[in-house]
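User: Sorry, what's this?
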Amino acid sequence: TTGEELPPWVAPVRFCSWMGGDRDGNPNVTHEVTREVLLLARWAAADLYERDLSGLIQDLSMSDATEAVRNLAGLNEVEPYRRILKDLREEMVVLRAELEATLRGEAVDRYSRVRETADLFDPMLLMWESLHALGMGEIADGYLLDTLRRIATFGIDLVTLDIRQESGRHADAIAEITAALELGDYLSWDEAKRCDFLKHELANPRPLIPYEFEPSETVAEVLNTCNVIADADPASLGSYVISMARQPSDVLAVMLLQKACGVAQPLSVAPLFETLDDLDRAPSVIDALLSDPSYVEAIGGVQHVMIGYSDSAKDAGTLAASWAQYRAQDELATIARRHGVKLILFHGRGGTAGRGGGPAHRAILAQPPGSVDNAIRVTEQGEMIRWKFGLPDIAVQTLTAYVQSVLKATLTPEHPPCAEFVAAMDQLSTESVASYRAMVREHPNFVEYFRQVTPEGALGKLPLGSRPAKRKADGGIESLRAIPWIFAWMQIRLMLPAWLGSDDALCKAIDRGQLPLLRSMYAEWPFFQVYVDMLEMVLAKSDPDIAAHYEKVLSGRVQALGEWTRSRLSTVIQAIASIKQVAELLERDPAIARSLAVRHPYMEPLHILQAELLRRDRELPEQPLVERALMASVAGIAAGMRNTG
């Protein structure tokens, strides 16, 4: 530590959101919703700042002020600080009224003079500097400094809104435009031809979209979203995240659509690499983009990339997905350094272990050396916000852990893993994904078993998520979102997505005589240590007897697939205990073990109730009381499971 406080204008942590911006597979999020959310966020900020200013008006009654403050307040003002604060408070009231009228679609009587964060921050900074200059530093560093830090952190928009859409929607939009221009079928072009066209149009000053263009409903929505971006204050928006990004053209298409819709300050485009194949391809995609000087100039030398945890784990299992994420980040960091570009990685971690969840501090320190370069973006998703930010002291602890870990990972990064460790992980990953997919994709009875013994079918009608449970209403497991996939297995305490595939891979390694190597990897490599510890925690929450109970109640018998799955669960528990050299799980984490021991007796009745409620709901659907009770059981079990639910 330097012993010096950060100046008021420095904000080490910033908050973003994609509530109202994430339209990937969610038909409820439209351009109208995005516009409304942007206005409501600014309204909420104005309301909060009005309260802060009212408090400061009571505190800052002194008359001594610097010339700069007196000029701003008026030379004849006896209480210059209060005059400035009252004027700012009035502008917050006017801003709220302006936003309310806009939301109602009515004419605005008067526009606030506060149009950007600096309009609020700069006058208050002058007051802070004035108080320090006149020997009143203790007063300046009280509530006034707190308010300045809030403004620096949240701005006048409260949070910056990220936009997210699936890559296919952008390709469809470009395809309809090229068809209208009689340039051919964009969707049938190879990647090279797509990129050539997109780059040419990005450099072309003429309008891309013809005046008489009549898009389909879905394409119109994409273009209308870009129009909302064009009309919004650039400071209110964050990144444009592309789900299921696979090729350079996916990024260039979004850049072109923003240009075509008149976005003066385009959003940074963050490709989201989600599946195992996409993660493996990510370095070549980014390398191809950064090899173009015009692209590097367009992004201002800063490349955003989002790493998907949920879908990659659902696609390949957590062991293979974790290793693919690590490799991708390592290679991306190397590529960015080679091109002289700053890389900002956006980690799409969820609350559950199967979605990259777990202690943030350890997870950040376990990232590849050099991949955390002074900055990192991480999602804190719905089910964990309450636990990590619900109380002020806990929120401070959470944010402190983030800042400390980013500083440590930047200043003292871990050494790269040795070649032997990398080779071992490559083999573990290959064997793990083969075992995982053999069960999930190829076993003839797996889909039926999954739908029969878990509450997967009921999750779609429960108001527990921000998006529909499936990307496509008529799709199978492949279209099921990662959250309900993990959620369903967690509810019956089998935790299958977290360990399936790892059991075979770890046991084969032990059978090959590699147990000493696995123990060395655990002792010396933060990445492998974090993975094993998270797997141990998840396994400690599993309960094969409860899973068997669901099976008996919902299918009327014990199934061979269920018995085999539970035997595999027992095998991976033994493997983890051998690697950690413990007699039982959580032996070295007594606090977590005690917490689970306290919770489990309360959860067992919930599981028994839920199994019976599921049986009744399936036998006679549309029973409101049964559905309400079922919803309560799902929420109760999820709360008990914490970062596995």
Remarks:
- The longest helix spans residues 590-619.
- The mean pLDDT is 91.
- The CA atoms of residues 481 and 613 lie 24 Å apart.
